[in-house]
């Protein structure tokens, strides 16, 4: 049987290269900004300052990893800032000196975050309410819970071993950086190398096709929101440990920084596309710019304006990239 | 003559209701190994519901589905696929950001276990071999979004084959394919037949059915009508059975004689698309435009309408020279355009029938910027009645209507601006035969009121049945203007193939 040769064309490899190029653009921008800062202020390019940046970035990056999973499936999670507060307060309550071994506050905190995330997933999959609304609701619920559990007061007097998790150093490297690297690798592997990761892309890329391929949409979404809750809990525990207090007001607005990092990193808000590398670069870019503006004595008011412009700019760039490939 | 063992798939007494409305009523279907079995019926006859039940996307109220002796009545999609029934959906069910290989094996990467490792290199290799066996040259590692519709379809077929499918359901597989691609698809289908794979084939294109089908089952209004070898049907008996009444007057007879010249096109050119196009359209006349894919039919139409203006050439309306650089200019000169892609250009799905109908002429029904609800809905109701639009009320969202009724809404919107020239680009694409007949009647009524009509169509019987004259294009050139008397399928094809 003779097959039509018109079908042969278009086995085009270009797309993959263009997507990679998108990632490099972000890397190049990041490096360029770093070089510019290094040339303008001698305080920027020091080991100490770079460590500070990565440490500051790490909590936002962990949240951004979680929300990247969610956005890839076509959802959104606005409650992660509140999860930071709830899990921080919960962990702190079990972290007073001479009470429980340090594994208990970590375990309880993580469990609280996973449950919170699972609740998001449950409501999103069982009702037809859009994730934006569901997590807007749970964001408020979470904030309320954190205030209830802490009776509105910071939970302080935490054990040294607990404070070490987010504030210590191992061989001179801050623990936060080590944890960031570990979870960056873990999240990348989940997304790129496992079946569930593939399903996240499929669900976000074309829900109908995923369903027709026998993929259980609700299971995938459930897992994604739970995972996001877990990562937010990790961020909450680390923040609590670093500031040595469980603050019921901690994490307010964190969700927006995390979403911004994911979007700057090329995660498509329509779902179906995004990488952890992009998200990490996005978080680093935000961190470097705000650090640089600090060093240049730009007031934080202006910093917010700059950050907003960067977010919009990143999305415009991304959409240009897409229309070019049409 | 045939024992039950011949059947690979048997459906008995299948019934499905949605919120009290019976979609399928005691339907049967028997599919033999290695046959192409056409499933025919108008839109709303229950074909898609039956298919969704077959592949486990819906569960029946009663009845049974047995496949190779196993009961599949209540099985889930994954189970059904594993057993060997796959469906190629009309609206391609692919994930654009993933690669060809990743799409082919989607849902079965590690037997679908959620927490296991992926081996993309292995998937890509297997996909490559599979596509090679099929004789299709598509790179397994290219992203799906860079493929043409025909290529995506080949990938979907590859997916079904890799799934060891013994029954493949194809829903309108040729609706977006060129003739050449259709030939490739048919070649592939006959390969599959020889391997004993059964194909359930759904299409509105009659010629196609008689070319490819071995057996035909007809459904009407959710009920089973008959199953017979294709050879025992002809177009007439098949249509009669589908529609439940005789449609020998598919194309209405018109008595009007063309009047004064309304639109004249002179030496119209657009670089790379068409050149030197000249024709006239008269009052109360239907000018058909024929041509193969890529001949430039739609391009000429969108130039006249100002969507993609021509580079050179002249347009005259009622003898006066006009310049049309944007659709507003065309509308101002009384030109209406019904696009071939009604989903994209035709209507706004979430809005109601009324809102869609009045969309293009809303200022007429507003005072000081406030829409006058009463006059708006009166107008919409009159139009609905005139065009026989079937909707629960004028407030029903257009997305809930059948394709034929959606098309009528689009035509209604154009009519409301009372154009003197209407361009209809593939007005009956994807519409069932009953609704087609109504649209033809409507076109004829317009003609009788003196509207000049340009009808672009890929279906030759439609052009021959409706047009007073037919302009034939080939590769962007005008090769003939045939009168109704001269035009036959053969003469049109002759001029359409001319270089």
TrEMBL record, chain A:
Isomerase found in the keyword field: no
Predominant location: membrane
GO MF, one annotated term: transmembrane transporter activity
Transmembrane segments: 21-38, 50-72, 78-95, 102-123, 129-149, 170-191, 222-239, 259-289, 301-320
Pfam assignment, any one: BPD_transp_2
Subcellular location: Cell membrane
GO-annotated cellular components: plasma membrane
Protein known as: Ribose ABC transporter permease
Automatic annotation (TrEMBL), chain B:
Coiled coil (UniProt feature): none
Keywords: ATP-binding, Cell membrane, Membrane, Nucleotide-binding, Repeat, Sugar transport, Translocase, Transport
Domain ABC transporter, chain residue ranges per copy: 9-246, 257-499
GO biological process: monosaccharide transmembrane transport
One GO cellular component term noted in the UniProt record for this chain: plasma membrane
Name of this chain's protein: D-xylose ABC transporter ATP-binding protein
PROSITE patterns for this protein: ABC_TRANSPORTER_1 (PS00211), ABC_TRANSPORTER_2 (PS50893)
Protein localization: Cell inner membrane; Cell membrane
Organism of provenance: Spirosoma telluris
Principal localisation: membrane
Membrane topology listed for this record: Peripheral membrane protein
GO molecular function, one term: ATP binding
Transmembrane segments: none
Family matches, as Pfam families: ABC_tran
PANTHER family, sorted: CARBOHYDRATE TRANSPORT ATP-BINDING PROTEIN MG119-RELATED, D-ALLOSE IMPORT ATP-BINDING PROTEIN ALSA-RELATED
């Amino acid at each position: 049987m003779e097959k039509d040769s018109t079908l042969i064309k278009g086995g085009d490899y270009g797309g993959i290269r263009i997507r990679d190029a998108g990632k490099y653009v972000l890397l190049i921008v990041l490096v360029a900004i770093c070089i510019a800062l290094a040339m303008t202020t001698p305080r920027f390019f020091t080991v100490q300052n770079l460590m500070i940046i990565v440490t500051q970035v790490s909590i936002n990056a962990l949240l951004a990893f979680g929300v990247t999973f969610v956005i890839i499936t076509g959802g959104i999670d606005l409650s992660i800032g509140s999860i930071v507060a709830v899990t921080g307060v919960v962990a702190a309550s079990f972290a007073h000196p001479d009470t429980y071994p340090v594994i208990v506050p970590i375990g309880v905190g993580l469990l609280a975050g996973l449950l919170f995330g699972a609740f998001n997933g449950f409501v999103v999959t069982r009702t037809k309410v859009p994730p934006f609304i569901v997590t807007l609701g749970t964001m408020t619920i979470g904030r309320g819970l954190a205030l209830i559990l802490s009776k509105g007061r910071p939970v302080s007097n935490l054990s040294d071993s607990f404070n070490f998790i987010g504030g210590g150093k191992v061989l001179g490297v801050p623990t936060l950086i080590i944890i960031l690297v570990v979870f960056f690798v873990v999240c990348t592997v989940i997304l790129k190398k496992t079946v569930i990761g593939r399903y996240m892309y499929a669900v976000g890329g074309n829900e109908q096709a995923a369903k027709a391929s026998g993929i259980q949409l609700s299971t995938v979404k459930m897992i994604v929101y739970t995972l996001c809750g877990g990562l937010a809990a990790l961020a909450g525990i680390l923040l609590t440990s670093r500031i040595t207090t469980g603050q019921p007001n901690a994490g307010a607005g964190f969700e927006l920084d995390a979403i911004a990092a994911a979007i700057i990193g090329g995660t498509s808000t329509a779902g179906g596309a995004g990488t952890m590398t992009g998200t990490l670069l996005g978080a680093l870019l935000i961190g470097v710019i705000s650090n640089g503006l600090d060093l240049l004595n730009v007031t934080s008011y202006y910093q917010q304006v700059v950050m907003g412009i960067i977010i919009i700019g990143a999305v415009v760039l991304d959409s240009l990239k897409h229309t070019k490939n049409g | 003559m045939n024992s039950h063992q011949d059947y690979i798939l048997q459906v008995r007494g299948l019934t499905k209701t949605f919120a009290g409305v019976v979609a399928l009523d005691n339907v049967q279907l028997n599919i033999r190994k290695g046959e192409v079995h056409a499933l025919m019926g108008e839109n709303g006859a229950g074909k898609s519901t039956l298919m969704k039940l077959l592949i486990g996307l819906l569960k029946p109220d009663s009845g049974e589905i047995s496949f190779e002796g196993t009961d599949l009545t209540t099985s889930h999609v994954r189970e059904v696929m594993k057993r060997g029934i796959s469906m190629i959906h009309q609206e391609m069910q692919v994930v654009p950001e993933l690669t060809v290989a990743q799409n082919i094996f989607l849902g079965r990467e590690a037997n679908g276990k959620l927490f296991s490792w992926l081996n993309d290199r292995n998937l890509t290799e297997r996909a490559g071999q599979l596509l090679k066996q099929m004789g299709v040259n598509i790179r397994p590692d290219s992203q799906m979004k860079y493929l043409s519709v025909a290529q995506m379809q080949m990938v979907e077929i590859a997916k079904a084959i890799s799934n060891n499918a013994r029954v493949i359901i194809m829903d309108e597989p040729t609706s977006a394919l060129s003739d050449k691609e259709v030939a490739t698809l048919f070649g592939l289908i006959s390969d599959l037949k020889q391997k004993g794979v059964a194909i359930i084939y759904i299409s509105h294109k009659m010629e196609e059915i008689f070319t490819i089908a071995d057996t035909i089952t007809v459904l009407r209004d959710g009920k089973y009508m008959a199953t017979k070898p294709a050879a025992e049907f002809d177009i007439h008996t098949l249509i009669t059975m589908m529609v439940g009444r005789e449609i020998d007057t598919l194309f209405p007879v018109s008595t009007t004689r063309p009047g004064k010249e309304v639109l004249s096109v002179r030496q119209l050119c657009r670089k790379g698309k068409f050149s030197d196009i000249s024709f006239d359209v008269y009052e109360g006349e239907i000018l058909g435009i024929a041509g193969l894919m890529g001949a430039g039919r739609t391009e000429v139409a969108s130039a006249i309408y100002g969507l993609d203006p021509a580079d050179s050439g002249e347009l005259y309306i009622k003898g006066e020279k006009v310049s049309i650089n944007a659709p507003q200019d065309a509308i101002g000169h009384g030109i209406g355009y019904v696009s071939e892609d009604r989903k994209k250009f035709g209507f706004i799905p979430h809005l109601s029938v009324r809102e869609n109908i009045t969309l293009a002429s809303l200022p007429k029904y507003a005072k000081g910027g406030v829409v006058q609800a009463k006059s708006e809905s009166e107008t919409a109701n009159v139009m609905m009645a005139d065009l026989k639009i079937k909707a629960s009320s004028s407030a029903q969202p257009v997305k809930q209507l059948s394709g034929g009724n959606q098309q009528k809404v689009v035509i209604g919107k154009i009519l409301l601006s009372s154009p003197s020239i209407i361009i209809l680009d593939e007005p009956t694409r994807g519409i069932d035969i009953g609704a087609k007949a109504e649209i033809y009647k409507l076109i004829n009524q317009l003609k009788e009121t003196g509207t000049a009509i340009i009808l672009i169509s890929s279906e030759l019987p439609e052009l021959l049945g409706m047009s007073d004259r037919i302009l034939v294009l080939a590769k962007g050139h005008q090769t003939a203007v045939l009168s109704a008397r001269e035009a036959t399928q053969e003469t049109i094809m002759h001029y359409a193939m001319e270089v």
